[in-house]
Amino acid sequence: MPIETSNLEEIKPQWRAKLEDGLSPSTRAKRRLLLVVSTVSLIAVILGLFPTKIEALGIEIETKNQRDLLLLLALVNTYAMFGFLLYAWSDLLLLARIHKNANTGYINEFVFGRASVWEKLNHKIRIMFDFIAPVCFGAYALHRIYETTQLFASR
Fold it and tell me: Which of 56-70, 80-94, 120-134 shows the highest mean pLDDT?
């Protein structure tokens, strides 16, 4: 979706890319990993879908080992969250630098408060969707894993 400026000034390509998509491809991949791992963790915890036997490998998982499986999921979830936060922080710093150094076109209007209400709302919703929601989802999954491991520990 192209960005139009009110005074038809040209927007430099790197600025245009950041306005259209605030996440770099590597950050988007880390975000996807975080969402997938968190979803798998929540499915395991909420629905109680713990494997009891893996016939292909000849492994039978006891109840105490299910707690270890949850701890492994928690470690992978923590890794995915840390990776996403690290990459997202870089993207946010780049966006801040672009906004700080911008002095023409759409970015200048947005930075100095002349953007429309809808543009400002869109910007805030995208920040929430791209950066905040995945971290909250991952934190919720870690919290549910912690609660479930405490249940296993009390058995």
Answer: 80-94
Q: The whole model's pTM is what? A: 0.72
Q: Domain ranges in the chain? A: 17-154
> Is the predicted pLDDT of residue 78 greater than 90, yes or no?
yes
Query: DSSP string covering the chain, please?
Result: -----TT-PPPPHHHHHHHH--S-HHHHHHHHHHHHHHHHHHHHHHH----SEETTTTEE--HHHHHHHHHHHHHHHHHHHHHHHHHHHHHHHHHHHHHHH--SHHHHHHHTT-S-HHHHHHHHHHHIIIIIHHHHHHHHHHHHHHHHHHHHHH-
